[in-house]
Amino acid sequence: MKLTVLGATGGVGSEVVEQALAAGHHVTAVVRDPSRLTVEGDLLEVVVAELSEHGALTEAVSGRDVVISALGARERRPTTVVTDGAHAALAALRSAGGRRLLLVSASGPFTDGDAFFTRTVVKPILGRVLRHAFADMVAAERVVRASDVDWTIVRPPRLLNGAHTGAIAARTDGNVRGSYSINRADVADYLLRAAVDDSLIRQTVSIAQG
């Protein structure tokens, strides 16, 4: 598989790059600062570009099987990084004639499937603390859903830096109950599996540690 990763130096993105290379996939990592990319390999291509550089992004996704947008805000200030990434990825895919896009969002802004306490107490508090990041993800999801590409939106809960376990619970009809975190390495594992799963095309999937 040939894939392009936006946000390749972030917590999830770097795990995607590392696991994809280990599995023998060809990876194009789109980064702003290549010094922050800690992995190397013969199958790795690094593209230094801003999200606004349409030509460079189009070239980075051309001929690839899937684009994975693993962008995320690093601070709690107002942000549009996930939405900007969605717009940029979709524009590049249209120009390159590509079809497959995976967007990393979060389960936090959404309450479908949540237990009563989580829905009425935990999520309102979380929503106030992370309101800017959540607003960005909600907007990004709206942009992706309105597109005509073969998209999959993946919503993990709180992200941790634990080891890859392979124990992942997933639901397409609401958030996973009883599990409120997941290791970034397991998110990457799920993304790579979802990339080749046609049953997940135009689906929103909530995942958590299984």
TrEMBL record:
<dbReference type="InterPro" id="IPR036291">
    <property type="entry name" value="NAD(P)-bd_dom_sf"/>
</dbReference>
<dbReference type="GO" id="GO:0042602">
    <property type="term" value="F:riboflavin reductase (NADPH) activity"/>
</dbReference>
<dbReference type="GO" id="GO:0004074">
    <property type="term" value="F:biliverdin reductase [NAD(P)H] activity"/>
</dbReference>
<dbReference type="Pfam" id="PF13460">
    <property type="entry name" value="NAD_binding_10"/>
</dbReference>
<feature type="domain" description="NAD(P)-binding">
    <location>
        <begin position="7"/>
        <end position="196"/>
    </location>
</feature>
<protein>
    <submittedName>
        <fullName>NADH-flavin reductase</fullName>
    </submittedName>
</protein>
<dbReference type="InterPro" id="IPR051606">
    <property type="entry name" value="Polyketide_Oxido-like"/>
</dbReference>
<dbReference type="InterPro" id="IPR016040">
    <property type="entry name" value="NAD(P)-bd_dom"/>
</dbReference>
